[in-house]
Amino acid sequence: MMKKTHPLTDKKYFVPFLFVTSLFFLWGFARAILDVLNKHFQDVLNISITQSAYIQVMTYLGYFITALPAGIYINKYGYRKGVVTGLMMYATGAFLFVPGMRMGSFSVFLIALFVIGCGLTFLEVSANPYVTLLGPRPTGSSRLNMAQSFNGLGCVLAPLIVGQFLFATDDADVSIPYVVMGVFVVIAAIVFSFVSLPEIISSAPEKAPESGAKVTIMTILRKETMLYGFLALLAYEVSEICINSYFINFTTSLNWLSDVGASKILSFALILFMAGRFAGSWIMRYVPAERILMICASGCIVCMLAVLLNNRHVSLGALVLNYAFEAVMFPTIYSLALRNLSMAEIKCAGSILMMTPVGGCAFLLMGVIADTASFVIPFVLPLAGFVIVLTYALWLLHRCRGKDRGVPV
To answer: Using CA atoms, how far apart are residues 156 and 172, in angstroms rounded to an integer?
Structure first.
C-alpha cells in the first residue's frame, strides 16, 4: 500500500539540513580510507590481514567508547558544539599521521585512527538524530537516506583518490591525504562555529526524562523497537564494515584484480551504494521503510551466497551488486529504531545506536579466518549479519500488520 506523502523537510530547516548533510561526506571519506589503508599497510609494513585489522578495531573502538559520553555532551551543550568538538578531534587525529609517518610506527597510526574514530562519533551522534528531526516524522527515514547519500559520495571518492595515490608507488607518504583532510576539517569546524543550528523542541507536552543517565538508557532499551533496532544495526555494521575492509584483500588475494584495479572497482561499487541511498530516499516517500528493508536484506543474502560460490565473475558481480542492496540499511534501521521516541529520548537513543560501529571490530575475526583457513569462508560473517537484518525487517512488518488488524503487538 502506498504511503501518504509528506515533504522531505520543512522550509525553516532547509539551510540547517544542507549544512549538517555536508558532515556526512566528511565521515564517509574518513571511514572509506580505512579500506585502502588496510591493504597499503600490509604491503608497506609487511603485516598480515589479521594485524592490519587493528586499523578497523581501533577506529571503531573509538565509536564504542565515545558514543555515550558524546550523547551526554550534546545533550548538555547542543548539536552545534557537538559538531565542532567532533571536527576538531577528527582534525587532531588526521594531523597525528605526520609524526606517525616520521617515526614509521604502526602504533602511532593506530592512536591517530582511534582519535579520528572518537571525532567521527561526535559527528554521527550529532548529525544522525538531528536530521531525522528536521521535518515531518513520517519522512525521517527518507530524509536520513538522502543525507546519508552524501556519506556515499565520500565513500566513492576516498578509495578512488587515496587508493590511486597510495598504490601508485611503493614509498607514498600516507600522511599527505590525512593532512589535506585535516585542513578541510579545520575549515569546516570554523564554519560551524558561526552557523546557527536550531535545537528542535517538540510542540507536544512530554514527560520529563527519568533522572540519571543509566535509568534513561535502560528505559530506552526496554522499548522493543529500539532494542531490536540496536541489534539489527550492530549486525549491519558487522556486515558492511567487514565487506568494505575485506574487498581489496579478497579480490587481490585470489588474483582477480590488482591493488589499483581493486580500488577502482570498490569505488564503482560505492557509486552503486550512493545511488541506492538516493533511490531509497525517494522510494521511501511512497513505500513503507520496513518493506524496503526486507527486500534489500533478502538481496544482500542472495549476493553473499553467490560470493561463497567462489566463481570469479559471479562472485565479483554479486559482491559489487551487494552495495546497492545494503545502501539503505543504516539510515533506515536507525530512523526506525528512533520511531515513537520522545524528543528527550532521541539524543540518548542516538548515542546508544552510535555504539554499533564497534561491529567493525569483527573484521579481526574475518582476518584470522582469511589468514588460517580460506579467503572465501570469511563471507559467512556478513551473511549472518544480513540474516539478522532480514529478521528485524520481518518482525517490523509483522507488527505493522498486527496494528492494521487492531491486534495488540
So the answer is: 21
Nearest CA to 295 out of 179, 390, 365 is that of 390
Residue whose entry in the numeric block shows the C-alpha cell 542492496: 325
- Give residue 336's pLDDT band: very low, low, confident or very high (50, 70, 90): very high
Q: Give CA separation, 94 vs 146, 161, 219, in Å.
A: 27, 17, 37
Task: With beta carbons less than 8 A apart as the criterion, state whether 56 and 241 touch.
Answer: yes
Spatial distance between the Cα atoms of 214 and 219, rounded to a whole number of angstroms: 9
Q: How far is CA 34 from CA 19, 28, 56, 168, 245, in A?
A: 25, 10, 7, 17, 7
pLDDT of residue 59: 95
Taking only the tens place, the pLDDT of each residue in 105-128 is 899 999 999 999 999 999 988 888
Average pLDDT on 143-158 reads: 82
Q: Is 298 exposed, middle or buried (CB count within 10 Å of its CB: 0-12, 13-18, 19+)?
A: middle
Cα distance between residue 140 and residue 288, in whole Å: 12
Q: How far apart are CA 125 and CA 79, in angstroms?
A: 9
User: Of 396, 399, 408, which Cα lies nearest the Cα of 336?
Assistant: 396
pLDDT at position 139 is 67
**Integer distance in angstroms from the first to the last C-alpha of the chain?**
20
Cell of 297: 536484506
Q: Which three cell numbers stand for residue 405?
A: 488488524
Distance of alpha carbon 240 from alpha carbon 350, whole angstroms:
19
Q: Which three cell numbers stand for residue 34?
A: 580505512
The alpha carbon of 126 is separated from its chain's Cα centroid by a whole number of angstroms, namely 14
**Cα angle value 119/123/127 (rounded, 5°):** 175
Confidence label for 290 from pLDDT (cuts 50, 70 and 90): very high
* Cα–Cα dist 54/373, whole Å: 19
* pLDDT for the residue 207: 46
Q: Give the containing element (helix H, strand E) for 326.
A: helix 312-326
78 burial level (CB within 10 Å; 0-12, 13-18, 19+) = middle
Block residue for cell numbers 487492531: 406
Decide: helix, strand or coil at residue 349: helix
